[in-house]
Amino acid sequence: MTTEEALILLEQLLSAHCRIKDIQELVFRQAWEGKTYQEIADESGYSPEHIRDVGFRLWQLLGNRLNTKVTKHNLHAIFRQFSESSMAIASPHPLDPLFICDRLSESRNLLLPAEFPGMPLGLTAPFYIERPPIEQRCFEAILQQGALIRIAAPQQMGKTSLLNRILYVASKKGCKTVRMNFQQADQAALESLNLFLRWFCKSISWKLNLDAPLNAYWDTDRGLAKSSCTRYFEDYLLSQSDRPLIVGLDEVDRIFAYPKLAQDFLPLLRVWHEEANESEIWQRLHLVVVHATELYLPLQVHQSPFNVGLPIRLPELTLDQVSELARRYGLPWKAEQSAQLMELVGGHPYLLQLTFYHLWQGDFHFSQILAEPITENGIYNSHLQRQWEVVTANPILLEELRRILTQPVSGLSVETHQLQSLGLIRIKGNWVRWRCRLYEQYFQSRLSSP
């Protein structure tokens, strides 16, 4: 198991309990590669005591999750054992013969859901449903020189799961891979371009198990942050080897709320991508940009990274794919049940996973779910409550939702697109419709209550 594969498994194991911090990832990565706490401390600049404490707490978290004792010394054995006992059965794939499971055992015992739905699906998760030809196009495109892939979809549609698979395929083809989650950036970094770019460069260096000699490449004069960052990439990160560097940028929406930062950083991505047309070294940088919301900032056409590269918009699952997902959960299922469920929740992957999880657990009968979809005791209640809290926190967004409820909407606003990014509505041309009957019933009920 490679370091990157182990890191993905680490995130899968702990994501339901906590967000993996940069320092935890650093300790895990270097411990996995056999380094002592003292060596990790010497290379990272932290004290040995701090590194040892981070490691001790991380092994405790893993031990609690796996119900066994985990130490720095048995880490490889524990992860190998867990991976070999995973639920997936690999099947041939054009780019990687050991990649994603398309055929599963019919044994119900092999189909136990690993955890409650809601987190990105692991590489071996049998409940990931491919949406051809999207995966194959991405796997081919990411290997092209200077590649840029843009993945856009509403929340919980499978963007991060796809990103992880793209990075996995690239790593198996000999590329260096890094996944950056912008939710990990501190508030202070998001309010300063210079701090953000230094965080960005340092984090990538750590994820590549490299030193981060920022000061050797950074000019502290005002207005030179982007030039310094570009120099760091060109003269340091991309010059380390002739292997391609794949950088997956997840949760890019986070910076959309900081207009000054977004208007500087996003055009920088475009510049780097265009440099690949002229410079061999910039051909080594391949980017995957993942976001849910649309950007509403006055970027010039020639500055935006959102009108170049390969655009990918994740669609909802089809009727046949819904039936396949039910089969993978080992449920006795008929095609007409897929149609009934889709009439309620559409082809939304998360809502479908949530439904099948509870059916598999035996918590509810299918007829009960259809009859009581928006009750407080229903399986969708927590999800609907979260969506309601997001909408009501923004009065303008709430007013736009009222407008959609009362009349067919043909005029699109920023708020309309924000509701789409939440997955609540569907935009087709200039017309707006509810994404599914579940959302329409729930919000109609909440907004009509006194």
TrEMBL record:
It comes from the Bacteria. It holds the Pfam family AAA_35. Keywords: Plasmid. Residues 1-80 form the vWA-MoxR associated protein N-terminal HTH domain. The keyword Kinase does not apply. This is AAA-like domain-containing protein. It comes from Lyngbya confervoides BDU141951.
